[in-house]
């Protein structure tokens, strides 16, 4: 939980490096909270229809507000994670390449940190 709070405190901090553990713990907790809010929206009936395509195409208001609030911190921790493996934050755009892009990004997120200091700062494991 400390890593989740740490990411939220570094709301729009795109500088520096983020450990693998920090990135994945944040994303796991974020997914759990998002899932709970999604189901809570369904139970409370706080959904809005999008494009009027039928029953399954509604968006929960609680989930939407939460997703908007954590979008910037999630983007920032992803950029800092890429910095940790020695890549630029612009590498996120590789996800736009169908199939290969998201897989390559996943490989980068799962990669171990560059040892020592790189151009983005000191290794957070060693600090």
Strand line-up in the sheet with most strands: 1-2
Percent of residues in beta strands? under 5%
**Overall number of structural domains:** 1
Summed over residues and divided by their number, the pLDDT gives a mean of: 92
- The count of β-strands is 2
Show unreliable segments: none
What is the string of helix and strand elements? HHEEHH
Query: Quick one: biggest sheet?
Result: 2 strands, antiparallel
Gyration radius, to the nearest Å?
A: 17 Å
Calculate the terminal CA-CA distance, rounded to whole Å: 20 Å
The number of helical runs is 4
The dominant shape is: elongated
- Structural class designation: mainly alpha
The percent of residues in helical segments reads 40-55%
Protein architecture, described:
By secondary structure, the protein is mainly alpha-helical. The chain has 4 helices and 2 strands, in the order H-H-E-E-H-H. The chain has helices at 2-9, 20-44, 61-84, 100-110; strands at residues 47-49, 58-60. Strand 1 (47-49) and strand 2 form a beta hairpin. It is elongated and about 50 Å long.
Give me the secondary-structure topology.
Elements: H1 2-9, H2 20-44, E1 47-49, E2 58-60, H3 61-84, H4 100-110
Antiparallel strand pairs: 1-2
Helix pairs in contact: 1-2, 2-3
Keywords:
mainly alpha; 2 strands; 5% strand; 127 residues
């Amino acid at each position: 939980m400390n890593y989740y709070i740490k990411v939220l405190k570094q709301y729009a901090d795109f500088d520096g490096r983020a450990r693998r553990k920090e990135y994945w713990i944040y994303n796991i907790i974020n997914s759990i909270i998002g899932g709970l809010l999604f189901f809570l929206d369904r139970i409370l009936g706080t959904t809005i229809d999008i494009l009027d395509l039928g029953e399954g195409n509604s968006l929960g208001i609680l989930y939407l507000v939460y997703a908007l609030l954590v979008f910037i911190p999630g983007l920032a921790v992803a950029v800092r994670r890429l910095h940790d493996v020695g890549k630029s934050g612009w590498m996120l755009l590789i996800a736009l390449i169908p199939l290969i892009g998201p897989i390559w990004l996943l490989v980068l997120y799962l990669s171990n940190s560059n040892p020592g200091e790189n151009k983005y700062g000191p290794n957070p494991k060693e600090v």
